[in-house]
Every structure is written in structure tokens, then in C-alpha cells.
Specification:
Layout (H helix, E strand, L loop, with lengths): L1 H23 L4 H19 L10 H27 L2 H22 L7 H18 L9 H21 L9 H30 L12 H5 L2 H25 L4 H8 L4 H9 L7 H19 L1
Helix pairs in contact: 1-2, 1-9, 1-10, 1-11, 2-7, 2-9, 3-4, 3-6, 3-7, 4-5, 4-6, 4-10, 5-12, 9-10
């Protein structure tokens, strides 16, 4: 059951990643991310009372909040890295970092002991995830962009590692706490483009300031805002599935299975956008399927 929950987490996170990427091409990523976290917060607030939570203690909520810090930092540095260097390097670096660091923490700190099959699945998953995430060949990229990818990976790792520490009696309230914190982390990055857009749209043809009452909706139109909110809700649902998976499965295996989400945008790109996969990307997707089978069997 734990493996299925972790795989469901990967599917929902992958769909959110794919949809968020498409939306970000039409609107500022920071605004899409902020709206997405707001949508995720609404879903978490609506769903939390439905899941039994006898005693959500403060430490559980604190772990959830720390997880939200990782979410916010991961999104900010991933975006900045993609604007400073090759996406085909930044995204795989962040994905592999987000997988490897929690695995190391699970084994070294939490005392997880994966089975032999699970270890084999982990060893296959790391290079497969790298290959599947590469959308195009890149000979080089700016060192600063690679550093952003590593930082984003550390944020994703923090998201997974911290959320796994929340106790079972806390229900899914830690996810709710995480959405609040992620909003606070992303907000400073979203304010400059929001102010700039409001200023541009508040000025008339002569340069004079006009009415700005509807500017916020024109910065992020209603359809895009709804799409971003739905994307954030899907990502929040992915974290709920991941949290539940850690209560049924050792953290190391739950993290690896949930971290297979970059394969979903690759598959959607092939089927929905009619993209042509490279040989290495195809090998990565096949390896991800093999790793998933090994981890599920282990």
C-alpha cells in the first residue's frame, strides 16, 4: 500500500510540474507558483478536517512548516537556475539531488535498511531520473545555474525529509502548515514582477496612471489563475499521498518512488505535446520503470 501511495504522489507531482511549466510560459513563474500554493492551501484546509488527527502536536506542525520552506526554496532556485542556464542540466541536477539527499538521510540518520532489491532499485533510479529529466542535449551551462539546481535539489530534499518526520496522529495538518510556509517563502520573489505588472497596466497611453482596480486579474488572467491554483492543489495532493506513504513504507523507499515524478512530464510531453524523445531520455524512462518495479517488489 505504501508503494502505491508513493507512486500516486509521483503521478500527481509530475502532472503539477507539467501543467505548471506550461502556465509559466504565459505568465511569470513566481506568480504561478504563488497562486499554486494558495490553491494548495485551500485544498489542504478543506481536506485536513476529513482525515483523523487525534492530536496534531506542535512539533508535527513545525516539521510540516520546515517542509514548506523546502518547497518554496526549491521552486525559487529551480526557476532562477532555468533562467541562468540550460534547463536540460538544471532540472536533472535538482531532481537527482532531491532524491539522493533524503535517501542518505534516511539511511544515516533514521536507520532505514532497504532490502537488496530496493537498493538495486535506488541504484537504477538515480541515473534513470537524470536521463529522463534531460529535455535536450547541453554541452555546458553556467556554473551559477548548476549551483541553483543543486540548491533546488536541497530544497526538494528538505521538503521530503522534514514532512516524513510528522507523527501519524497529526493527520495531514503538517501539509497545511507547509503550504502556509511555502507561501511566505515565495511571496518576496513574486512581489517584484507583480508590482512591475501593476505599474505597467496602471499607466495609460500617455504614461499617466490610470485605474488599477482590475490590474491583478489582468496580470494573471482568471483562466490562468484557476489553472495555477489547480496545479498547486495537485502538488498538495501529491504531498498528502507522500506523507501517508511514509506511514506505510520506510522513508527511503517512499522518497525514491515519489521522486520519480520527473518521468511524468517527459511522458506527457511525448503523448500530449508530441515531442520526440532522445535515446538517452528513452533509456531513462525505461530505467525508471525498472527501478519502480524493483522498489515495489522490494
Amino acid at each position: 500500500m505504501g508503494a502505491l501511495l508513493a507512486l500516486a504522489s509521483a503521478v500527481f507531482y509530475g502532472m503539477a510540474d507539467f501543467a505548471g511549466g506550461l502556465l509559466s510560459r504565459r505568465a511569470g513563474f513566481a506568480l504561478v507558483a504563488l497562486t499554486g500554493q494558495a490553491g494548495g492551501l485551500v485544498l489542504a484546509l478543506a481536506a485536513a478536517p476529513l482525515y483523523p488527527a487525534p492530536s496534531p502536536a506542535f512539533p508535527d506542525l513545525a516539521w510540516g512548516a520546515l517542509s514548506g520552506v523546502g518547497t518554496g526554496l526549491g521552486m525559487i532556485f529551480l526557476f532562477r537556475g532555468m533562467t541562468r542556464g540550460a534547463i536540460s542540466v538544471v532540472v536533472p541536477v535538482s531532481a537527482v539531488g532531491g532524491l539522493a539527499l533524503p535517501v542518505l538521510a534516511g539511511v544515516a540518520v533514521l536507520g532505514d535498511r532497504p532490502s537488496a532489491l530496493s537498493w538495486l532499485g535506488i541504484l537504477v533510479a538515480v541515473p534513470s531520473l537524470w536521463l529522463a529529466s534531460r529535455t535536450a542535449p547541453a554541452l555546458s551551462t553556467a556554473p551559477a545555474a548548476s549551483l541553483d539546481g543543486l540548491t533546488a535539489g536541497a530544497g526538494i530534499a528538505l521538503q521530503y525529509a522534514a514532512l516524513a518526520q510528522a507523527g501519524q496522529d497529526s493527520g495531514i495538518w503538517p501539509v497545511t502548515a507547509g503550504r502556509l510556509t511555502a507561501l511566505a517563502v515565495i511571496l518576496p520573489a513574486a512581489l517584484p514582477p507583480l508590482r512591475a505588472a501593476l505599474t505597467r497596466q496602471g499607466a495609460g497611453p500617455s504614461g499617466r496612471t490610470g485605474r488599477t482596480g482590475r490590474a491583478a486579474w489582468s496580470v494573471l488572467p482568471l483562466r490562468q489563475a484557476a489553472g495555477a491554483a489547480a496545479t498547486g492543489a495537485a502538488a498538495t495532493l501529491a504531498l498528502v499521498f507522500y506523507l501517508l506513504a511514509t506511514r506505510e513504507q520506510i522513508v527511503t523507499v517512499a522518497v525514491v518512488l515519489s521522486s520519480m515524478y520527473p518521468a511524468i512530464p517527459a511522458l506527457l510531453g511525448l503523448t500530449v505535446l508530441r515531442e520526440r524523445p532522445t535515446r538517452l531520455q528513452t533509456a531513462g524512462l525505461l530505467g525508471a520503470a525498472v527501478a519502480t518495479g524493483l522498489l515495489t517488489a522490494g
